[in-house]
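Interim report, section 4.2 (structural modelling).
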Amino acid sequence: MLPAVDLFEYQGKQFFRSYGMPVSDGDVAFSVDEAVAAAERLGTPVMVKAQVHTGGRGKAGGVKFAASVDDVRTHASNILGLDINGHVVRRLWIEKASDIAEEYYASFTLDRSAKKHLGMLSAEGGVEIETVAAENPDAISKVLVDPAEGLTEAAARAWVEGANLNPVATDQAVDILRKLYVAYVEGDADLVEINPLILTPDNRVHVLDAKVTLDANAVFRHEDYAQYDETQPRDEREEAAHAKGLQYVGLAGSVGVIANGAGLAMSTVDVVNQVGGKPANFLDIGGGANAQVMANALEVINNDPDVRAIFINIFGGITRGEEVANGIIGALDAVDIEAPIVLRLDGTNAAEGREILAPHLNEKLVMEPTMLDAARRAVAMAAA
Amino acid sequence: MSIFVNKDTKVVYQGLTGSQGRYYGMLNRDYGTDVVAGTNPRKAGTDVEGVPVFANCTEAVAATGANASCIFIPAPGVFDAVMDAAEAGIEFVACITEGVPAHDEARFFNMLKRDYPGVRLLGPNCPGIITPGECNIGITAGHIAKPGGPVGIVSRSGTLTYQALYELQQKDIGVTTCVGIGGDPVPGTSFIDCLEAFEADPDTKAVMMIGEIGGSAEEEAAEFIKHHMSKPVSSYIAGVTAPPGKKMGHAGAIVSGGKGTAAAKMDALRDAGVRVGLNPTEAGELMAEIVAEL
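Predicted structure of the assembly:
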């Protein structure tokens, strides 16, 4: 399974615009000159906004009002290259500034307990919704939508009326939130969030920010989502693993971990920690792992200079033991693996797999009977 | 005894003609599962190693009396496959396929609840279900499960389901039924559904529950155990050392904002009287202690 896809604000706004929601006109800029050109096209005043996959941009100085083109030049040069919670700003969104009378919050996501869609709307927007939820939960109006039924006009109206927005905003809010629901469902999003949704002094309801997380499992029916894949934040190791279609998360240790299945991979990370080691990564080679997948996984781990030992933990259900064995042998032929490998192999055709591997065992490829034994051995080897 | 499936369960494989469907359908048949039919609208009238293939589940049920289905259809076709099984009157649907869009899952879950309340869906993205010695539906390696009882297993993770079965087999402990509910955001069958069924099953004397970080299903299960279960439970939660905010493969397995952490889940389970192990082996050892005390 692929991870979810986070959109930048500007991508989220383009996504919302395609569903008929009112967003500000703007341009993406990768340099100060591009930011200035955008401001000249749009006409000042504009907002200069850092595009990063993290919250707290405003506090970090990543969102600035620019009254003039000179201001745009100053702010753009300050914001580009800024580090916001470990995310370095590489691109800006320059958009027409809006006058704000009131700020609201709106979102749709899945309520996993209720197994229904949850809409949240609050007249207290512009701040973190977690803070509102903790300090003043009554300020959040909620609606549970049955995914088999959808959001009716009447339910949307009752939801909006429960949020105590300015009454002049009601009709427009109902319209925008119904479109937001359509974007959430038809766009296959895990999360759509507008914070703030604003009311302008001339009584227009307008989308001023956009946070969208798409479900990567639905890419098959949205060919255009491939464009978002390129803008996901990944470290070098994660990028290499992603290019090979592997489920990889970089960690900061010395024991490389390869396992089949997310649960077993997480459990392997746990066990390495519990026996006193530090995992270098989480890597799930998934269900139908064959020789090529195993070779790819070993190659990714091998390129991590911090890895001192590799723990391969396979329990065959959908993955067969002989495939795992052939994969390891094939990978050892193809790649010069530097760190020693500790293997634990059980499940479907494990005996056949072990037999295939037996003649290849040496000080750099050892087998252990249990997960705990294998973890201890790998941790000892990484420390040696 | 067992829960959900037994020796009388007749299974139709939706996607039997595909490589995965054929491989596991035949493995399941070799195990002893009553594999009565397959479906594929383009290959109706053919057969897979003697198993007749029908255009849809309604025809398969009419001809063979199938009362369960196992879905190996690729993710884009899963929504239609689930509804096809429900329309045919099939009572138990195990969906093995991974990568099903979350909105499809939410929609067919609620459509089944509304229009076909008698249908139990297991999964998607799950290893299936095995009542050892009687019926194996899905991708579990049957030989790692010792038939009989007294333990029931319910797990959110595929490979950890096998690990749990294996730990018990190593200790010569039998299993009534082992259910892999899957790690997706909207599982058709929940921990609580399985705990309730195990509590009602006279042959199941204790339950092993394998959870994961993310969501609140384990906390809800703990609440159920505390108030409604008389049988002892051992548990393990994967992802004890997972860093927050990192997505660990499953859609389900993500820790955000301090919610859904392994620590919170383990505390809730301990508070409900569950014996919690720090790894699958320890959970197996705790279950061996429970079985010795029965």
